[in-house]
Amino acid sequence: MIKRRRLGTVYTKSPAQNVEKWLVDNFTKLMFSIFISLLWMGILYVLIGVVNFLGSQLGELWEKDLPTSVIYNHPVALPVKIIGIIFIFWYVFRAKTNRKG
């Protein structure tokens, strides 16, 4: 590991350390965002399944035995998926992980 240099009474970091910290932070945020986005897709599928069951079996609003995957892959569900993923990435990347104080 690269040591910090002492410059008078202040410790300074080399540019390589700053780049390393930036890469580690952003790579971690990227992996976390991808994982949470996949989790969002699973949660959305379950919610669509519940709505499908309630709408077809209990409410009789549309035909019975309509597979959940048909509704999940419908073009109307695409904006919900995209907006959810954009929100997740925005929320994760705006978080301040290096707050001082």
Shape: rod-shaped
What is the count of helical runs? 3
Largest sheet: 2 strands, antiparallel
What average pLDDT do the residues reach?
Answer: 85
Number of strands: 2
Oligomeric description of these chains: single chain
Beta-sheet strand percentage? 5-15%
Description:
There is one protein chain. This protein is mainly α and 101 residues long. It has a domain at 36-95. It is 65% helix and 6% strand. The protein is built from three helices and two strands; from the N terminus they run E-E-H-H-H. It has helices spanning 15-58, 68-72, 78-94; strands at 5-7, 10-12. A two-stranded antiparallel sheet has the order 1-2. Strand 1 (5-7) and strand 2 form a beta hairpin. The relative contact order is 0.12. The model has no long low-confidence stretch (mean pLDDT 85).
Characteristics:
single chain; 101 residues; mainly alpha; two-stranded antiparallel sheet; 3 helices; 65% helix; rod-shaped
Topology, please?
Elements: E1 5-7, E2 10-12, H1 15-58, H2 68-72, H3 78-94
Antiparallel strand pairs: 1-2
Helix pairs in contact: 1-3
Short description:
65% of the residues lie in helices and 6% in strands. The chain has 101 residues and is mainly alpha-helical.
